[in-house]
Amino acid sequence: IAGVLVFLAAVGVAKLLWTHLKFGVVIKSIEFTRFDRIETEVQSGQEWFKAGDLIFYLGDSETFRLVGVSRPEAFRQTCLKARNGYAGTQDALEREAAMAS
CATH code at 39? Predict the structure, then answer.
């Protein structure tokens, strides 16, 4: 699957969207609040293509899976950085709201 990751943060919704490159159709999406870690798994035949699967977890439960991702470790780091940035912003907004009340 050829795809691209799109980060969307608007109206309190933040998601990772996996879209088809040719048509821009969203194939899969996950909210940043639905995962806290990501693991990579390289299936037979993917190594030659420098590809692998990304498995998203919340606690011990698998919540999302992207298969056949090119350069999965770099992509994993990008997803985690985006999620951590979103979580940090949400924490700061909550602290600010608590101090204002």
Answer: 2.30.29
